[in-house]
Amino acid sequence: MKSFLESEVFIVAFVFLAYYIGRQIQKHTKVILLNPILIAIIIIIAFLSVFSIDYKAFHEGSKLIEFFLKPAVVALGVPLYQQLEKIKKQAIPILVSQLVGCVVGIVSVVLIAKAMGASKEIIYSLAPKSVTTPIAIEVSKTIGGIPSLTASVVIVVGIFGAIFGYSIMKLTRVKNPVAQGLSIGTAAHAIGTSRSMEISPKFGAMSSIGLIVNGIFTAILTPYILQLINYWFPL
User: Fold this and answer.
1) DSSP 145
2) Per-residue confidence at 125, pLDDT binned at 50, 70, 90?
3) Same domain, yes or no, for 34 and 106?
4) Domains in the chain, number
5) Same domain? 141 vs 162
6) Taking the CA of residue 199 as centre, how many other CA atoms within 13 Å lie in the half-sphere pointing to its CB?
7) How many CA atoms lie within 13 A of 41 on its CB side?
8) How far apart are CA 194 and CA 203, in angstroms?
9) CA distance 25 to 42
10) Within this chain, do residues 37 and 96 fall inside the same structural domain, yes or no?
11) I need a labelling partner for 205 at 20 to 30 A (CA). Which of 115, 128, 187, 197 fits?
């Protein structure tokens, strides 16, 4: 029985089922806090605990899902193409805002973590928190972080952004749809973009831009930003 529960076919099917259940719960309750990914995580954790499934076995069985993370990011190019003309007209503001968002995102989390006494390894793991998982993991490996911790933090940040992002912007009176979409993509990566897609294709396209451009900037600039921070505030 346990060998079947740890098999790749069962694990992949179970993960999709957990997410489907999450989608249905949110669809019928209309409660934003009941994010499908959050519900799926809770279901999976409960499953692993009840049946005493070793995490390593689960991870091995779910590698097919992990493999498709990168192609899934590439697929976000579709809404970008659909909004291409609008994007061209606002290319400079988009690039500048994403550059600022990247720098602020990295610097803020590094300095806060340092002020709270986090170790250098933990700080480096938190630095790429606002980009989608495949990019964040690779950045974490490059700079000497803990990829598994980075992945966990990325998911938490994404869920938080998907649940509270638009509410926070409403409270702070950010009303421009372009600014809203870009902000969610920049801060909450793929999970936030999924939420934006539910609102409208325009929000989804802008969020995709935020996700992709911030991901590129983060991948390129993170090591250099950390060097500068380390120079002024030794980690």
Assistant:
1) -
2) very high
3) no
4) 2
5) yes
6) 21
7) 9
8) 10
9) 13
10) no
11) 128
